[in-house]
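Summary for the steering committee. One of the milestones for this cycle was to obtain a three-dimensional model of the protein with iron/sulfur cluster bound, which we needed before selecting residues for the alanine scan. The sequence and ligand used are listed below.
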Amino acid sequence: MGLLSFLMMMAQYKIIYDRKNCIGASSCAILAEKFWTMDKKEDKADLMGAKKTGEDTWELEIDELYLEQNKEAARNCPVAVIKIVDEKGKEVKI
Ligand code: SF4
């Protein structure tokens, strides 16, 4: 099986990030540095490549390959502003 068909078979997830309530604790950027980076001016995390869907709410689709590291980021966020949902929109247990 080629890499592309393998990736297409993997489940898709969506990260939903409520940036407004981020307190800049940085753990997401340490645990999942390919996805999260710190905006030093605003002292908030940015979810790289995400689409803005609300006032300061952001969403990014990821595949299963990146689920664990983002679950870890979500789990360690002290204000729980990172949520992950599956293809049906059901929240993933972190
Ligand atoms: S871990 Fe949570 S509070 Fe800390 S920077 Fe990331 S999103 Fe913000």
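Key point for the committee: The CA atoms of residues 24 and 51 lie 20 Å apart.
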